[in-house]
Automatic annotation (TrEMBL), chain A:
Cofactor: binding details: Binds 1 [2Fe-2S] cluster.
InterPro entries: NuoE-like (IPR002023), NuoE_dom (IPR042128), NuoE_N (IPR041921), Thioredoxin-like_sf (IPR036249)
Name of this protein: NADH dehydrogenase
Any one Pfam family match given in the protein's UniProt record, by short name: 2Fe-2S_thioredx
Record: residues binding [2Fe-2S] cluster: C78, C83, C119, C123
A single MF term (Gene Ontology): NADH dehydrogenase activity
Organism the protein comes from: Prolixibacter denitrificans
From TrEMBL, chain B:
Protein's recorded name: NADH dehydrogenase
Every 4Fe-4S ferredoxin-type domain range: 540-569, 570-597
Organism name: Prolixibacter denitrificans
SUPFAM superfamilies referenced in this protein's UniProt entry, alphabetically: 4Fe-4S ferredoxins (SSF54862), Nqo1 FMN-binding domain-like (SSF142019), Nqo1 middle domain-like (SSF142984), Nqo1C-terminal domain-like (SSF140490), Thioredoxin-like (SSF52833)
Domain of life per record: Bacteria
Keyword list, A-Z: 4Fe-4S, Iron, Iron-sulfur, Metal-binding
Pfam families: Complex1_51K, Fer4_10, NADH_4Fe-4S, SLBB
A single MF term (Gene Ontology): FMN binding
Phylogenetic classification of the source organism: Bacteria, Pseudomonadati, Bacteroidota, Bacteroidia, Marinilabiliales
Family: Belongs to the complex I 51 kDa subunit family.
InterPro entries in alphabetical order: 4Fe4S_Fe-S-bd, 4Fe4S_Fe_S_CS, NADH-UbQ_OxRdtase_51kDa_CS, Nuo51_FMN-bd, Nuo51_FMN-bd_sf, Nuop51_4Fe4S-bd, Nuop51_4Fe4S-bd_sf, Soluble_ligand-bd
Coiled coil: none
Amino acid sequence: MDPIQSLIKELAVKHGRKRESLLPVLQGVVEQERYLSEHSMIEIARELDLPAAEVYGTATFYSFLEHRKMGRFIIRICKTISCSMKGKNQVLLAIQDMLKISTGETTPDGRFSLVETNCLGLCHKAPAMLINEEVYTDLTPEKVREILSDYMKK
Amino acid sequence: MTDYRMNILVCGGTGCRSSEGATLYDELVSLLADKGLEKEIQVVSTGCFGFCEKGPVVKILPDNTFYVQVQAADAREIIEEHIIKGRKVEHLLYTAPETGKKVSDSKHMDFYKKQVRIALRNCGFINPENIDEYVAREGYAAMAKCLGEMTPEQVIKEIKKAGLRGRGGAGFPTGTKWELTRKSEADQKYVVCNADEGDPGAFMDRSILEGDPHSVIEAMSICGYCIGADKGLVYIRAEYPLAIKRLKIALEQARNYGLLGENVLDTGFNFDIELRYGAGAFVCGEETALIHSMEGKRGEPTFKPPFPAEKGYLGKPTNVNNVETYANIPPIINKGSKWFSGIGTEKSKGTKVFALAGKINNVGLIEVPMGTTLREVIYDIGGGIKGGKEFKAVQTGGPSGGCLTKNFLDTPIDYESLTEAGSMMGSGGMIVMDEDDCMVSIAKFYLEFTLDESCGKCNPCRIGNKRLWEILDKISKGNGTKEDLNRLKLLSNVVKDASLCGLGQTSPNPILSTMDNFWDEYLAHVEDKRCPAGQCKAMMQYVIDPNKCTGCTLCSRICPVAAIEGERKKPHEIDPEKCIKCGACMEKCKFEAISVA
Ligand SMILES: Cc1cc2nc3c(=O)[nH]c(=O)nc-3n(C[C@H](O)[C@H](O)[C@H](O)COP(=O)(O)O)c2cc1C
Ligand code: SF4
Ligand code: SF4
Ligand code: SF4
Ligand code: FES
Ligand code: FES
């Protein structure tokens, strides 16, 4: 059994093999692997006894269930109205400039992925972003450069 | 809390934590320990105080001193001056903008004066990670009363009499919903809490779960008792890590205290709650989509009826309520329906929590009685518009709502009045806009959101919204015609009428309301090819004023596309053909010679 297969087995034991276990299992794989590969989806289908197309159809519906390979740190910057009104574009440009990637891309060393997302419910502290589970608010180009420099050392 | 001589409440809401609140807490705790005061003075990490604008916020009890913008470096001064010597730290007190005077007691701040806190009663008062503090403030008393002294019918009757309506948007009477679910016969039923909050500008539910998770747990148990369910599910956005953490802690503590699980409080009532996580799909906030998502399927809405009360999760009767709706239940039981229905207006009882965001001085979280006017919220509580600018509009109801102008400032906030005014209550996000915001761009923004979040199941929403967006885009690029405005209106109505779920049925509202209220602005875009707010890039022209330009050449050196020409010490000129309107030159010119026309 490869590591993915054993992870999926473990998750199936924890969450069950019913249809309603699918999302928790998918989320469990993403938590570990950062994304769902074709291999993972096929294995999940096998483990939960579902058609692979159903697994794919469900997984691709949700924007947090990435199905492209993602970096170790996923930067999700809010692009919705409050953040845009408060200078999100400059922050985004600063990130892109620093990491040398565009939105939707991953750095060649596999460390950072940059995605835009909709409102994170942090509009009172706009502009806001998440890096994995960490919340960063009141961003400015300077602040975001500082934050990213810290991550680059990790 | 009463075991201590003094309590230092530090805001532990996401807003304040992300700006140093967490280190501040640690610093206070370790300083107290250094001074040997940890047995007398307690540091409590609470939920959001609401005044996030000036966070991190610290409040000292019993004297109610309210400190704002406290940094970790200020911890020593608070301890040495205030706690030990009893002298307030003046420079950390809030300065009232109108009088310029320092205000020490939060009760005297305009921000709090008009607020009435029911759903937020514990936010900013208790440590949400400690069940004892919740219990000390009447926590689980309502549940005990229901299980011990009331029949489910009596509880439902009380909630109906209170007149509580759903806070998730639609405003359906909560007691009636519980009654319907109770009457649906089945071997298994479910209680669901909708914590998928995703409206742009909304963070009420997050703050309640972060600040007072037990109130939601208690209310869900009461609901379970009423409808005859032994299982509850909270569907919460994965983007809310702190709320998830606190909810998990609260569930664990409630189980340990015998307030959840088998045979609750020895009454023979069984009830437990499970968490389910969203995965970044706004439409899953719609109740049928939410149920499909919990079933492990794509989160696509289905036609109602059947309503969840008849056929919900796994085909069983399911009661779905919003976080804030639940948070109102325990006080209604404790204080009675009469007390609750005494607050608010004729058809909208109680209070509503709003999240203030955008161009307003006091961004944050507030709770006001229904019937409070928009003006009171924006000016008295919100402190008016940032930077002394002119108020232009307030968007309520998120992507389903509308923009209300100056003319509506005296509208009392309740379900009916807001709908009549052309917007809606929605879940409680309020985004304030000033004179610099272009209403065409705002409408386009909301449409972009809808396009991203439409599930794509039905054509009017999937295709119609795309076409609407394209028309708006054309207008904002200066290529729109008057005919486009007609098409915009026509198509908006088709999308509204023909879409399957609430998302599509309301998505054109931001367009229709901005057209109604800002028709001139639309006309300026299509007829004069002009954006009055100066936001639509395609219609802007950067120009250099030859009288102000000193010919320093700075701008021509930084222009990324070499659009600026001119000789040294002579006025420069911008070639509009080449200019990409990046704004860099204007920002850099030291002589304010460059402006947008
Ligand atoms: C597109 C869409 C998104 C919604 N999002 C939410 C949400 O995030 N939270 C919520 O409580 N209700 C949301 N609702 C409303 C729910 O469908 C449902 O009416 C509500 O959860 C019922 O609870 P209440 O009666 O307590 O308000 C949404 C509705 C639609 C159409
Ligand atoms: S209206 Fe939009 S979100 Fe709702 S079902 Fe149709 S496509 Fe999906
Ligand atoms: S920076 Fe200003 S003053 Fe200098 S050349 Fe450009 S417009 Fe003229
Ligand atoms: S706005 Fe940008 S592109 Fe246009 S002239 Fe100025 S610097 Fe050059
Ligand atoms: S709009 Fe960016 S967090 Fe809400
Ligand atoms: S998060 Fe601290 S006051 Fe709102």
